[in-house]
Automatic annotation (TrEMBL):
Membrane-spanning parts: 73-95, 102-122, 142-165, 170-187
Source superkingdom: Bacteria
Signal sequence interval, chain numbering: 1-19
Coiled coil: none
Pfam families on file: DUF2231 (PF09990)
Organism of origin: Christiangramia forsetii (strain DSM 17595 / CGMCC 1.15422 / KT0803)
Glycoprotein keyword on record: no
Chain ranges of the DUF2231 domain: 69-203
Protein name: Membrane protein
Entry-linked InterPro entries: DUF2231_TM
Record's keyword terms, sorted: Membrane, Signal, Transmembrane, Transmembrane helix
């Protein structure tokens, strides 16, 4: 009987030893993970402290060269102009005022120029984006491209309503539809752009942006 118990004990001894080794391994692995997290947090604190110290010596108003990209500074102009142009064109459907046509043309034309500059010359290059950020950026670029085309077409149509087809309500409705689509597209592009910055963290202090000047 004693021999039988001894044999069973010797059989289970390696299993008990393996369990202890696994427990020791998991314990060490957890300690290494905690150390890695602490190291990352420490690096973030050091970087934040360094940025804070560097910013203390800077003037309150930043220079244009201090911005990693000029896209956010330019893109607000087409957003405002195209939205305003769409609203004015809606009013024009009812009043058909000649002077208002010129204001709408200015909004559409300047909105197109602003959208083109923001979407082509001041469009930032990105790197190391997450999969979600890539999808959001893709949607942003699609709506930005639609904004450029729609605003250009709206400006051309508005020129036609001023010089060729004057005070034609049917034609003004067509202008409104195109300009309204441009306003919708630029608002959607702005939405996805805000999502990139404030949710995905792309852009603040140059994060995920390539440093290659202010151009495209």
């Amino acid at each position: 009987m004693k021999k039988t118990v001894l044999i069973f004990f010797l059989m289970f001894l390696p299993i008990l030893g393996g369990a202890q080794d696994d427990e020791h391994y998991h314990h060490n692995h957890e300690e290494e993970t905690i150390q890695q997290v602490d190291t990352i947090d420490l690096e973030k604190e050091v970087n934040a402290s360094t940025k804070l110290e560097n910013n203390q010596d800077k003037p309150v108003k930043a220079k244009l060269d201090d911005f990693p990209n000029l896209h956010p500074l330019i893109v607000h102009f087409p957003i405002v102009l195209l939205l305003l142009g769409g609203i004015l064109q809606l009013i024009q459907l009812f009043v058909l005022k000649r002077n208002l046509d010129w204001v709408i043309l200015l909004c559409a034309g300047a909105g197109f120029i602003g959208a083109y500059v923001a979407g082509v010359y001041a469009h930032p290059h990105t790197h190391d984006l997450s999969e979600m950020a890539k999808k959001v950026l893709g949607q942003h670029d699609i709506y930005a491209e639609w904004t450029i085309y729609a605003s250009a077409l709206a400006a051309v149509l508005k020129l036609g309503s001023i010089f060729l087809i004057k005070k034609n309500r049917i034609f003004e409705i067509a202008v409104f539809l195109v300009l309204g689509f441009a306003a919708y597209s630029v608002s959607e592009a702005g939405h996805y752009g805000s999502q990139l910055v404030y949710i995905e963290g792309v852009g603040p202090q140059g994060d995920y942006l390539e440093s290659e000047g202010h151009g495209h």
